[in-house]
Amino acid sequence: MTRESIEFDVVIVGGGPAGLAAAIRLRQLAQAQAFDLTVCVLEKAAEIGAHILSGAVMDPRALDELLPEWRQAGAPFDVPVADEHFLWLGEARSVRIPSALLPQCFHHDGGRVVSLGDVCRWLAQRAEALGVELFPGFAAVDVIIDADGAVAGVITGDAGRRADGSAGANFQPGIEVRGKYTIFAEGCRGPLGKQLMTRYRLRDGAAPQTYGLGIKELWEVPSAQSHPGRVVHTCGWPLRPDTYGGGFLYHQAGGRVAVGLVVGLGYRNPYLSPFDEFQRFKTHPAIRGVLAGGRRVAYGAAAVVSGGVRALPTTVFPGGVLVGDDAGFLNPARSKGSHTAMKSGMLAAEAVVTALLAGRQHDTLVDFPRALQDSWLFRELWQVRNFKPWMEKGLWVGGALFGIEQKVFGATVPWTLPPCPPDHLRLDKASASEAIVYPKPDGILTFDRASSVFLSNIRHDEQQACHLRLKDAELPIRVNLAEYDAPEQRYCPAGVYEIRQGADGRTSLQINAQNCLHCKTCDIKDPLQNIDWTPPEGGDGPSYPAM
Prior knowledge:
Oligomer: single chain
Radius of gyration: 23 Å
Distance between the termini: 39 Å
């Protein structure tokens, strides 16, 4: 069956903050310059925003530049940050750290408590009004490379293939979506971004990227416990001082509270389970008191980049550019990436328009890194470049030294610390590690994986081929189980990976791909980098409501 091909001036892969900001900026510039510019956005989720998971407290700085009328245009940003609490948690007590002792990057002046999924839905409406063509439910699975070695677009995934890869009765081949330039905005650990980094050696000279796993629930709580605009961040318990991470409580409108825990994926103990650490986190008196008597209404998980500015790859290559978390523009000290993602998309759009007006196509967008270097985005990330390396020294020492550095030097820090090693190289062997016994869930405040995954509204066609691909099918048993006691059973927040004993006595790894939340933790944390996360059929995966 012949593959259909469609052409645009600019193809954007990913309908998150970076991709949508790029699309809007492209059309704004085209209208201002009075020239025709066709733009499309491909999004693997069934609808824009369905795969978006974030806290979120959003810094509106980039939005002020992109759509300065947003306050009067019905944007879903109606809960300004009203008060902030930073808590140091012990097992049964908490200490509120005075605001005056916190570095400026830990403050959220002017921030808004939002559902980032709702923000993306609103941005999509604005993009469509400007003439952007949106294609939700289309997962880009491969890159088109022209005869000169430049990116010329992407190919979307086939639909209707059977588990063995053969074409089913309703088979439809993917589509070639070609463009003069392609902007990759897939989010954290994007599969096409990985391909491009390898093909064009974009990571040469960059520090290793590091990651965290963010796990989040949305609760409806009694009105007496709801304080819209209150933002609570925590450090300490339940994580050990040598494990990077922290928790949050964001009070939204309508009695809703977002609660979550981010666990750095550089942790060493293979028995650590981020999902179970999050369940324990909710039992702390400072957290339990907010959730008591409430009802859990949603659950999800997503990996986040945390390497900072020095882990950024080369972002441009012939015919394309990486933006947002596909490149790694999140500010790890602030745990904020929406405004930085949007700004990177806007800068990319400006570089693309400059090139197109000059009659160029499929070349390297040299104006993008120059503009990035001169932007507030780069300055913001550069100021906190030592955050993650300081935290390598442990919560107490590292946190104190980073705070002192920022308080004394601010934007003029005169030194740069060595980078952190890759997360997948950090696991200790099971024989050298202490097993962790987690309490059983009570079904009221704490829950198991199965009931949590149910709340994520996951849909996967179970007849399709598994989208979680093992490079070597022997390694999970021969190495991971033997040496690390199968850590994939614990680092996955959705119960995708199980060690099973067959009737013949053989041990095997069972992959429950239908449970996958698309968090990509397995792609990141597997000690041998043996698991490749690839997109399933377009439209599959979780469907997060107001997350």
